[in-house]
Amino acid sequence: MTTNTQQTNVDLDEVAKFEALASRWWDTENEFKPLHDINPLRTNYINERAGLEGKKIIDIGCGGGILSEAMAQHGAQVKGIDMGEAPLAVAKLHLEESNLEIDYERITAEQIAEREAGQYDVVTCLEMLEHVPDPASVIRACMTLVKPGGHVFFSTINRNPKAYLFAIIGAEYILNMLPKGTHDYAKFIQPAELNNYARKAGLEVQHMTGMTYNPLTKVYKLTDKDVSVNYLMHTQKPTA
């Protein structure tokens, strides 16, 4: 990993999007409602496959701390990192309400991987890869951070016409579930691409599941049969 990669693998426009919305991160009825709605599904998926209690975890791209807090509530020792100052400030402030202990820091995945290699039982990087210039670099950093035998979880959005229709046209322009411009279709990642990135980094893919949304019932669910839009991937670092 080079210092140049560490400095350049941040899209300042993407950071600015979430900086502007930071004050509403914990408003469950505003722009971040979808994140709050899917958070129990994400947290349970991680807990079922890796076990959160007593584990040392780093949450890459933690934003305002929604996932970080949920994992801490399950008994994990959590560190959250992000490059947005405002979301991190909101995350730290919210700890005063939740009475949880989480260590938040403004730093890139690549930078902290150099400092804390092999120190974490679980690494999570959810809804973040589609917001950086070089997702493969982040995935390599996740591989570096996790202990041998440890677990790494990713989630992102597939790149195909259905995903464009649902994640951008539907969610941002029709249903107004997300602010317009939240996502850039060109940065979406197909499952085969994420699988390839993970394997090249040295991670073994264990499982993949899709996350679907029914706009009529307003219910999210996980289903292994449909990874056409949002999906989660569980990977593991070999023990040797």
From TrEMBL:
Residues given in the record as S-adenosyl-L-methionine binding sites: R42, G61, D82, L126
Catalytic activity reported: a 3-(all-trans-polyprenyl)benzene-1,2-diol + S-adenosyl-L-methionine = a 2-methoxy-6-(all-trans-polyprenyl)phenol + S-adenosyl-L-homocysteine + H(+); a 3-demethylubiquinol + S-adenosyl-L-methionine = a ubiquinol + S-adenosyl-L-homocysteine + H(+)
Domain of life from the UniProt record: Bacteria
Enzyme class: transferase
Pathway in which the depicted protein is active: Cofactor biosynthesis; ubiquinone biosynthesis
PANTHER family reported for this sequence: METHYLTRANSFERASE (PTHR43464), UBIQUINONE BIOSYNTHESIS O-METHYLTRANSFERASE, MITOCHONDRIAL (PTHR43464:SF19)
Function: O-methyltransferase that catalyzes the 2 O-methylation steps in the ubiquinone biosynthetic pathway.
Family to which this protein belongs: Belongs to the methyltransferase superfamily. UbiG/COQ3 family.
UniProt name for this protein: Ubiquinone biosynthesis O-methyltransferase
Organism in which the protein naturally occurs: Marinomonas posidonica (strain CECT 7376 / NCIMB 14433 / IVIA-Po-181)
